[in-house]
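ARCHIVE RECORD
Type: protein–small molecule complex
Small molecule: fe (ii) ion
Source of inputs: curated submission
Record status: active
Notes field left blank by submitter.
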Amino acid sequence: MAHPQPEALGELAQLLGGLGLQVETARSTVEALNKLRSHAAHVIVSHHATTTAGHSFDGVSMLEASLLHAPDALRIALVTSPDEAVELDYRPAHGGTIIRLVARPNERSRLVAVVGEGVKLLGLVEEQRELVRRLSIDQAKLQKRETLLDVVVKERTKELEDSYEKLKAANRQALFGLAEAIEAKDPYTKGHCGRVAAFSLVLASEAGYPKDGLETLEFGAFLHDIGKIGIKDAVLLKPGPLDDAEWLHMREHPVKGYDIASKIEMLKPIMSAVRNHHERWDGTGYPDKMKAEQIPIAARIVAIADAFDAMSTDRPYKAALPLAECEAVLRKTAGKMYDPDLVEVFVTRHLGELYGDYADNLTDVG
Ligand SMILES: [Fe+2]
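STRUCTURE (tokenized, with ligand):
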């Protein structure tokens, strides 16, 4: 509080002290600004301007200068008449931060009320500012945590996906190794598994098989003869025709394959192709004597692909048949051996031309 007259200063200090405020007084601008440098002021009250005994005091200039030291303080200029208040409005640079209060000596209680309310208001503003500050810190922390979590989750997901893909690739490799073991045991079937898989895939696609099941089907077709691992070499590799007992043993391969497949989690979805690829449409096949649509569609597809490949490649006991003849045999036996609708798709679209060694064999037969 700055005022050039000591008696007025004393009176005002006493009044404001009654609000429970710590009051500092100054009699000149220099003294006031010095005190503002060392004390954080919330309210600055000044008499606006006086000239007493040749000593001039410009309170409003002091208030304007105080902006530098206490930018948020409530600034009050005491004026003695409403005219002065209006006049002060025209002073540049005070920026509206100065409240001009007409306070005659008998109206001091108005000053106390304004200061009291002002202090309360400043307290609220400070609280609000603190709240906003804390909220923004919390929010920044939260955002940082979220971003971090996001990054961690993404990394972990990618790691999991990578290991799943690796595991899948390793499993596939192991199973293809198994299929190769069958082919190694029976060299006459070299390439047979791969071609059956390729014909099955193209037939399934053309026949509208569910897209998300194609990979499993291809896999099942590839491994359909996995049970031949359990067939005695004397039977599997016999150059001549098999006798009845040998045929019975040979026909165990779908069930032997099923026994293997059911022990390996990854092979479960393809068990039907392994177990039922020798069923016949008329119910005379093996091992379950299933009929028509009872036979799982994967097994029906593999049966056609298997038969086509057997006819269209050279075997020790017979030469490969031309495409048209293979197709004629399929058509003739459709409805007895094979699903007639699937045979129709395979034959009319000449799917046998599309994959495998068929073209080479044609040239050889040429
Ligand atoms: Fe078979």
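CURATOR ANNOTATION: Residues 224-225, 253, 277-278 surround fe (ii) ion (CB under 6 Å).
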